[in-house]
UniProtKB/TrEMBL annotation:
Organism annotation: Apiospora kogelbergensis
Gene3D superfamilies: Clavaminate synthase-like
Protein name per UniProt: TauD/TfdA-like domain-containing protein
Keywords tagged on the record: Oxidoreductase
Superkingdom classification of source: Eukaryota
GO molecular function per UniProt: oxidoreductase activity
Amino acid sequence: MARQILPTSLGQLGLRPRSLCQRPLDTKRAFATASRRPGVLLSVELPEMSLSEQPHYVNYIAEQLKEYGILKVNLGFPDRNSRCLQQLLFGFHKHHGHRLPIAHSASCGWFWDIRPTAVTFQSPSYQARSETMEQFPWHTDCSYEEQPPRYFALQVLQPDRRGGGTFSLLGVGRLGTVLSPMTKAALMRPEYQIETPPEFIKDPTRRSLVGSVLEIGEGGPSDILMRYREDIVTPLSEEAAGALNDLRDILRNESIISKMVLRLSSADMPEGSILLVDNRRWLHSRTHVQDPMRHLRRVRWDAVPFRSFT
Ligand SMILES: [Fe+2]
């Protein structure tokens, strides 16, 4: 399957994110091109706001996201209010059955601003990791939720001008090829306790869940889905602990991981870029932010139970 022929570092490949669709209306031609070049981060132009409401354009984006699990859209116009992204999400909901995002709060709505801040936090009592300049190790978003979002998107409003905040992606299907069958089987058993980080506790009586780290997706045994954030997972059996250690060792082994990782620098994701990601088929990480004015906007949607295919 195309999404398992995963990209490596664009720099190592000598490739840059490229536009497959200079003329977005020519979706047949663009799709054919995309199918022949599965190792390249797909990059699609959106020259006019109105296109984000047109079903054929929405369908094209949704199909590429389903096929590859990752897609970049380049806006050809300023959109500080993320209207375009809103229109795409309404389109995914209307034509492709994606569930709409859940509002973070009455003031923030669907969107969460990711920028370093020392004064005002978007959570009432705690500072979320996204509100710091810290690096994030490999994880999927909302792994502590019974229904983690299937997708998230990041819109770049201000790139890091000092070379920090590099976003990296690691395909779960490819990661699965370097895990032993025994390790994968153990990670698929519901023998892990996953704690909710304090800043995301909604119900004080529900602070953790018990479940698996991996599951099989609708594409069959090679379609592996994942939920993972190392600092909140506790194994509940000896086998589960061994498998978790195997996974951690591989994720820390740069000589293995570097061949599979797609790294997106600020140059790869300039202002006006939107990255759409399948949150169960790609792990992501971030280096330290260097520019205090770096500003991304995030939205997550289509929250469904993790074990929805078994
Ligand atoms: Fe994240």
